[in-house]
Structures are given as structure tokens and as C-alpha cells.
Amino acid sequence: MPQRLADIVNAHGLEHRLIIVEITESAMIHEDNLMREMVAALHENGFEFSIDDFGSGLSSLSMVADTLPDEIKLDRSLLKKNCEDERERIILESIFQFAARLNIRTVAEGVETKEQLGSLRTCNCNLIQGFYFAKPMPENEFRECLVSRCRHNEEDILEIQSEAAAVQLLLQAVCMRYPLIIYGNLTRNSFYMMTYENFTSRSCPSTGTVDNLIAHGTMSMHPEDRERWNAMFCRENQLRLYSEGKKELHMITRQIGDDGVYRKVETSNYFVKSPASDDVLVMSLCKNFADGE
């Protein structure tokens, strides 16, 4: 099929990247090996691949990780409570967040109400389709509809903002200031990278134990800063500081970059007790100082 599709597209002089092949989630599950081979062939031919009906009951995150879709289309069943149920919103926001981190485009299907539109527009959803905008129509009516829509002033998005939008905006602002953000659990000795862009060094592990992370960080510091850094940021000291009532700690050190040059780096750690357990959580925000600062 991928080769046949390539021949047809070439015959019409179209660019392969403009073609998106949709495969239903159920087909991906039931024809696992065949679909993986087909998806690989589609990508090799420059076509995009979309998982349709995502979340309809057979969702497999491992499937997403293994096939690397360019797009996922959320099944309309995920909107059945009109985006007014808290659990439904949490599930939707989680899908959009993991898709964004994997650079997967998201499409919400079956949008029919103003509430659904308003909620999805504030959840980092890329594309929205459904009868809320229009039902299928003849070509001449479609052209008239486009002209009418272009003349219509759409409602102010600020009027339908949700708390999720404020959180998303806050995260974007924080990521703009701090190119390296680490979320860790000091009690359980674990961490993962939330963002890791344009930092001095790109060799930091993306997930693992806090102890190993601190050991790695110590080795990347200037020899004169290593002892001070390790004493301050070792997990035992951070837990001790939290037990003494400390909510944050800050330190400026010199860290070697991928180019072999030491640069000043500010590390700020913020502590909080997990709302679901007695675990002590930590958020590490790290930024480079520009040369001369």
C-alpha cells in the first residue's frame, strides 16, 4: 500500500508530506506487526501517519511510543461529558501534554458545543473538528460559509479561558526562562526531565535516581565548586533542609558545557509535600548566565 500510494501521489505531482494516512486504533491493536511495518514504510516514503479514534477503548501508549505517529485523533467518546466533568478534563489534558512533549499533533473529533470548544482551545489541542463548525455541505455552500466566517469576528478567547489555560501559560513562561527543569521525588529517589532545551550541557540523563543525577552534576562542575555543590544538593541534605522548614535553595556554580567551556549556572530547588502521600517532591530550575553576567 505505501508504494502504491507513493505512485498515485507522484502521478499527481503532489508532495508526500501533504498526505496523512489515518489508521484506526483498533486496527493498530489487532494487526500489530503488519501495522508497524506499514507505518515504517509510510514514514520512509515521506507520508505522515495518524492514529484515528484514539482513546476509544483500546489505547496503548506503547503503540504510540513504538510507531511514532505524527498525529493522534481523539475519539469523540472522550468528550461525552461535554468537558464539564473534572475527571474528563484531567484525562484530556494529560493526553495533550504527553502528545506535546512527543511532538505529536492532536486533533479532537466530535466537537459540537461551545463548552467543548472553549475547553479544548485552552488545553493545547492543535486541531478541532466537528459539527459545531459545520456539517458536510455542497461545494458552493462551503465557499459561502468560508466567506461568511472570515467576516465574522470570533468571540474573545479570554472569555472562555479555563484554569488549564492559565497553568499552560505559566509552564510556557517558566520554560522560556529555565531551559532545564527537573521534577524529582526525594523520598523515592527518582526524577525525570520536564524540559531540556539550549542548556550548557546536553549530557544529563533524562530520568533515573536523584542520587545518580547529583553525582553526574558534581562531575560536570568546576573542580572548585564540586564539594560545595555535592554537599548542598545531595538528597540527604535536601531532605534535612525540608524537615527544618526550608522551602527552597539556590546556588550559582560553574558547569562545563559540551564545548568544553565552563559557564555560570544558577540552580534553584523548590520543595513541596506530595498531596497524595508523605513524599517530598522537588522542582529544580536551572538557567545559564550569559557571558559577562
CATH homology group of the largest domain: EAL domain
Global mean pLDDT: 85
CATH domain class of the largest domain: Alpha Beta
Structural class of the secondary elements?
alpha/beta
**So what's the overall shape?**
elongated
Low-pLDDT runs of 5+ residues are: 156-160
Strand content: 15-25%
Number of strands: 11
Helix-strand pattern: HEHHEHEHEHEHHEEEHHHEEE
The major sheet is characterized as: 6 strands, antiparallel
Rg to the nearest angstrom?
24 Å
* CATH fold-level topology of the largest domain: TIM Barrel
Q: What is the domain total for the residues?
A: 2
User: What is the CATH architecture assignment of the largest domain?
Assistant: Alpha-Beta Barrel
Q: Report the span from N to C terminus.
A: 58 Å
Quick overview:
The chain has 293 residues and is of the alpha/beta class. The protein has eleven helices and eleven strands. The model is unreliable at 156-160 (pLDDT under 50).
Secondary structure topology:
Blueprint: H1 2-11, E1 20-24, H2 25-30, H3 32-44, E2 48-54, H4 61-67, E3 71-74, H5 86-101, E4 105-108, H6 114-121, E5 127-128, H7 139-151, H8 163-177, E6 180-185, E7 190-196, E8 207-208, H9 210-220, H10 226-233, H11 235-243, E9 248-256, E10 262-273, E11 280-288
Parallel strand pairs: 1-2, 2-3, 3-4, 4-5
Antiparallel strand pairs: 6-7, 6-11, 7-8, 9-10, 10-11
Helix pairs in contact: 9-10
